[in-house]
């Protein structure tokens, strides 16, 4: 297993992996119409390639043997000292193997290297398995928000935070 920076050449494989993961997990939580809308906005090739060129924004891929098994994206937030874990996904056949925790720790290392004291994320309030996994890795619910994302869709999320400095 290794965590590597995502390259522009990986974008098509990333989009295919995202689609597979989202359809395995989210239909009962947000429905297929919102899945399609969000995949189209968050994983279209131009958007991801543009993000790969941005300073203060990172994309990682999780490689298990020669297969991309997961990915993460995180960026320096507008709140000083905070990094936002924007995406963290592991294919279902690789879940519960510690890979998600390794990717969280990798994001924490980058956050510490950038002088951040906490890692924050948003997770759908009905995504019980993800909430439990984040809590297992030291995140706590700090807030709840509903955000209009367009086309009649909303993200109904908890904001979770984890300290990354010192003895955590």
Structural features, described:
The protein has 168 residues and is an alpha+beta fold. The protein is built from 5 helices and 7 strands; from the N terminus they run E-H-H-H-E-E-E-H-E-H-E-E. The chain has helices at residues 11-25, 27-42, 45-52, 99-113, 128-136, and strands spanning 2-5, 57-64, 67-76, 82-90, 118-124, 140-150, 153-163. It has a 7-stranded mixed β-sheet with strand order 1-2-3-4-5-7-6, with helices on both faces. Strand 2 and strand 3 form a beta hairpin. Helix 1 (11-25) packs antiparallel against helix 2 (27-42). 25% of the residues are buried.
Key phrases:
single chain, 168 residues, alpha+beta, globular
Give a topology summary.
Blueprint: E1 2-5, H1 11-25, H2 27-42, H3 45-52, E2 57-64, E3 67-76, E4 82-90, H4 99-113, E5 118-124, H5 128-136, E6 140-150, E7 153-163
Parallel strand pairs: 4-5
Antiparallel strand pairs: 1-2, 2-3, 3-4, 5-7, 6-7
Q: In summary, what is this structure?
A:
By secondary structure, the protein is an alpha+beta fold. 38% of the residues lie in helices and 36% in strands.
């Amino acid at each position: 297993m290794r965590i590597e920076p995502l390259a522009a050449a990986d974008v098509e494989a990333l989009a295919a992996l995202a689609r597979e993961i989202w359809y395995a997990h989210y239909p009962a939580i947000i429905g297929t119409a919102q899945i399609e809308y969000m995949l189209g906005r968050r994983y279209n090739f131009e958007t991801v390639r543009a993000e790969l060129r941005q300073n203060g924004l990172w994309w990682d891929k999780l490689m298990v043997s020669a297969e991309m098994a997961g990915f993460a994206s995180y960026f320096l937030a507008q709140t000083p000292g905070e990094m936002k874990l924007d995406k963290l996904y592991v294919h279902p056949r690789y879940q519960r193997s510690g890979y998600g925790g390794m990717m969280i720790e990798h994001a924490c290392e980058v956050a510490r290297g950038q002088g951040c004291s906490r890692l924050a994320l948003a997770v759908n309030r009905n995504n019980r398995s993800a909430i439990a996994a984040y809590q297992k890795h030291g995140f706590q619910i700090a807030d709840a928000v509903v955000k209009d994302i367009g086309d009649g869709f909303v993200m109904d999320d908890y904001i979770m935070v984890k300290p990354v400095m010192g003895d955590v």
